[in-house]
Design a protein that fits this description.
The structure is a homodimer. Chain A folds into 4 domains: about 180 residues, 3-Layer(aba) Sandwich (Molybdenum Cofactor Biosythetic Enzyme, Chain A), CATH 3.40.980.10; about 50 residues, Molybdopterin biosynthesis moea protein, domain 2, CATH 3.90.105; about 90 residues, Molybdopterin biosynthesis moea protein, domain 3 (Molybdopterin biosynthesis moeA protein, domain 3), CATH 2.170.190; about 70 residues, Beta-clip (Beta Barrel). Helices cover about 20% and strands about 30% of the residues of chain A. Chain A is built from 8 helices and 28 strands. In chain A, the strands form 8 sheets. Chain A has a 6-stranded mixed sheet with strand order 7-4-6-5-9-8, with no helix packed on it. The longest helix of chain A is centred in the C-terminal third of the chain and has 19 residues.
Chain lengths: ~425, ~425
Amino acid sequence: MSLSMHVSKMSVRMRGFARYIRLDDALKTILSHVRPVGVETVKFDQALGRVLAEDVVSKVDVPPFDRSAVDGYAVRASDTFRASESKPVRLRMVGSIAIGYPTKLRLRKSEAAKIMTGAPMPTGADAVVMLENTGAVGKKLDVFTSLTPGKNVSTRGEDVEKGDIVLKCGHKLRPQDVGMLGSLSKLYVKVSQSPSVAILATGGELKQPGRKLGKAEITDANSYSLAAAVSNCGGCPKRLGTVRDDKALIKRAILKASRHDMLLLSGGSSVGERDLVPDAIAELGKLLFHGVAIRPGGPTAFGIVKGKPIFALAGFPVASLVAFDMLARPALRAMQGLHADRGYPRVKAKLTRKVSSTLGRADVVRIKLRYASGELLAEPIRITGSSILSSMTDADGFVVVPENMEGFREGAIVEAEIYIPDC
Amino acid sequence: MSLSMHVSKMSVRMRGFARYIRLDDALKTILSHVRPVGVETVKFDQALGRVLAEDVVSKVDVPPFDRSAVDGYAVRASDTFRASESKPVRLRMVGSIAIGYPTKLRLRKSEAAKIMTGAPMPTGADAVVMLENTGAVGKKLDVFTSLTPGKNVSTRGEDVEKGDIVLKCGHKLRPQDVGMLGSLSKLYVKVSQSPSVAILATGGELKQPGRKLGKAEITDANSYSLAAAVSNCGGCPKRLGTVRDDKALIKRAILKASRHDMLLLSGGSSVGERDLVPDAIAELGKLLFHGVAIRPGGPTAFGIVKGKPIFALAGFPVASLVAFDMLARPALRAMQGLHADRGYPRVKAKLTRKVSSTLGRADVVRIKLRYASGELLAEPIRITGSSILSSMTDADGFVVVPENMEGFREGAIVEAEIYIPDC
């Protein structure tokens, strides 16, 4: 190793140590370096959970014709204006209108036609009287109520009019949206591609799940939790296995992985002798920060290699997953055209215990949620080490103590974010 | 048609009309007729979003050995008891411990060994002093702080102990849970099968999306929104197309579909002449109710055919999807071992307008959510007809007005349920 490389390596590390960047600034840096991924076209019935990359503009009216909204009789509203329970109006029945077939029927004054829900309105009719407000006597129909024009008629375009923007670019599609696309005969939609995210775990001590462990070895959990976290926010994870703590190997692996849209490395980002990943990033591209004022997840670095955003996450499972949530998840969402936040549902809840933090650092406190006498309570999880993954499997969500606070008192109403299997 | 069949058919219809069953009672009836689906075994890294069908008991300790939680020096805590910033204790450095390899080092009194985060603790050591609290002078180490036994040591089993129940049966797996399964080397997990749900749309007026519409025809949206809704709560939808309004055809389609775990039919459940689906259910099996005191979605029927739960949903797109949410979704969740509720995240929000309802009927009011000066507001959507699917695509969620209330006043704090693309 040349002296200059050694110096540059030291300075990278020292900078990381000295200046923990604020969470907001870290996010700003990240977001200014990610770009939306490409667009692809998918069939509408395969688009659930995808993010629209176009405004959907209707080319049709829904419904496409005036139709009855109830079972009853199509009438001219004006014929019924004086009708009441005690003084019915008597109309002449002139036909019956079925569903699914156009009708040639024309209603003239004092005429009525039997009609079913969803059947097309006959020409001349402008209202439908419900079955229960009528009495039929042979070809005569008594109407016991007065109707205003349009009553019980579902008019052409009342749901969607041709030219309406029905769903907007950046919207994540839900079941009703998929139904709407069908209803508009919008067979193909443009959606954001799923960002392809390479995941590498570093550390010679890592063994794959199921492998027998040597005396000082541990099982790799990070690459699996990170892969699931990537899927969970719409990304497409590619686990590339583990790499030993060897900078040359790490650099080679990073270069190989840089064809993906984002790279996540776990391990080797703490500020110690094995601080290899940030160094590798600095040597291959640009290291933009190392060390974020959050806990857990402080020893996180971020940079750009071959134009691709690359995160060096801590090796401890909680630290790596929390840092992913706080930093990489908003980026992945932005890359898909979603709002660049964490996107977890938020609820207000009352803390059951005091939570302490440190000024200048954002703390991510895992919590359990429960209802007690109609009140939503958030109970901070006691064991909080970065290595205690059970603190996250036990948790229903988390609360962020912002940098400008030293904690929350017992009983404080806080905003909790909820872990959802898919969201 | 025989007279007795005609009578039975009429009585079915009349009963449906006369007695709208309460939502709670409808749900009770449904849940007493659904059973958990079978169990299957999947690889842990394919299990995100699946529901555990077993308790996961750890067969290992995590971590599997005592290790350092920081970069620093392994020491015997008792050697540091009197150390302070001004009066350091001087120890003898006897080695260095790397990650991933067992160490044969044994610390004796007044000895220290360099150690990295994650490296195994040497025999005799019971604490780690952080780098920044030490000064190294050749083979001598000054320690400027006193340590209690266990300080900065991550002890064997501190995350998970062998025998711990780590994840419980009925839990829907999230990213951290997948990581935990990896960490435990739990390669395969038992999860509930995805209930297979057959979906049939009835009505001769229905055309598939993309097909040219005749004058009185409409595009089928229901079978697509229902299929997406089934996926959205863990089911596996099978769209079986559309069936004409012909009871014999409907009965044949139902029988064919009864190999699935659940059947959803849309259309033909309103109480009119084309009331074919409830009749078909009554003739093939048992019709348990017809008509629920909810809006939209009132004309919903439920029964059992060949042991399988079958829902006759209304033909209007909002009515069918809301009735699915209120009735079929809890059932599908129960079939997977989840809590038999709707499972949407709930938030408290303030109504921006009065909402009126009718005593004795539960109203599902679609809302938009927005923040205004830190307060979450729920704005009821004005257009609410059962046929207006845009009232659901515009909505962020919904509020249920219970049967015993005539509505909510403007400014009332209500509990809103949020539509999430996948949850």
